[in-house]
Amino acid sequence: MESDRRDVGLAEDISAYLGGFQRTLEAIAVDDLRAIIGSLSDAYEAERRLFLIGNGGSASTASHLACDLAKTVSGKTINPRVKRFRAVALTDNVPLLTAWGNDAGYETIFAEQIKTLAGSGDLLLVISGSGNSPNILEAVKTARELGLHSIGLLGFDGGAVRSLVDLSLVIPSDDYGHIEAAHVVVSHLITAHFVRQLFRHEASANAG
């Protein structure tokens, strides 16, 4: 009897979560997503650097997307004719993150890296559920001062960072799980677009 109640409860939980996530995906603003992909395409074509940041689960998504753009978009085999996406996750250098956090405060861990690595015309992509993390806000402010363009993949109402970035996609949900999962879906969608673009370019070149 107890097992039956657990099975019913589990089925309800699965249905509720998947249904909620499906509604979240259906509510994504496609025009905002198109604008973001356009900005990324411009950076790629101009061979500008793309820096990605996030905290917690969003840090993992930043690292994942940077890997996909830098490697997956280049193809499975090395092809010197294929332009590389100059994508770097500022979440990955743990010694540097802890050094800046220890000496200058956790809110500086991304901003100080941007000062070292970035230049005018480069692109900063921030991934944040709340959009209110001090280190995210400081990074975007620093990026603006240095002439970088900025994009936010956000959640809830976008938080304080929404008004600071040039473009944003706000996942319309108050569920952190749905927001973070949707960010991963969007990241894979972005990667898939660039992979298809590469395929189309290669097919056109071979046909010519």
Molecular structure report:
The chain has 208 residues and is α/β, with parallel strands linked by helices. It has a single domain (29-207), classed as 3-Layer(aba) Sandwich (Rossmann fold), CATH 3.40.50.10490. Helices cover 57% and strands 12% of the residues. The chain has 7 helices and 5 strands. The chain has helices spanning 2-26, 30-45, 57-70, 94-104, 111-117, 134-146, 176-207, and strands at 50-54, 87-89, 123-127, 149-155, 167-171. The chain has a 5-stranded parallel beta sheet with strand order 2-1-3-4-5, sandwiched between helices. The chain is globular. The N and C termini lie far apart (69 Å).
Give the arrangement of secondary structure elements.
Blueprint: H1 2-26, H2 30-45, E1 50-54, H3 57-70, E2 87-89, H4 94-104, H5 111-117, E3 123-127, H6 134-146, E4 149-155, E5 167-171, H7 176-207
Parallel strand pairs: 1-2, 1-3, 3-4, 4-5
Keywords:
single chain, 208 residues, alpha/beta, Rossmann fold, 57% helix, globular
Radius of gyration: 19 Å
- Please summarize the sheet with the most strands: 5 strands, parallel
CATH architecture call: 3-Layer(aba) Sandwich
Report the end-to-end length measured between terminal Cα atoms: 69 Å
Let me know the number of strands.
5
Q: Given the structure, what is the number of helices?
A: 7
Number of domain modules: 1
Unreliable segments (pLDDT under 50, ≥5 consecutive)?
none
- The CATH class turns out to be Alpha Beta
Helix content: 55-70%
Structural class: alpha/beta
CATH superfamily: Glucose-6-phosphate isomerase like protein, domain 1
What topology, given as strand order, has the largest sheet? 2-1-3-4-5
Element string (H = helix, E = strand): HHEHEHHEHEEH
- Mean pLDDT, to the nearest integer, reads 93
Q: If you consult CATH, what is the topology?
A: Rossmann fold
- Provide the β-strand percentage band: 5-15%
Net shape? globular
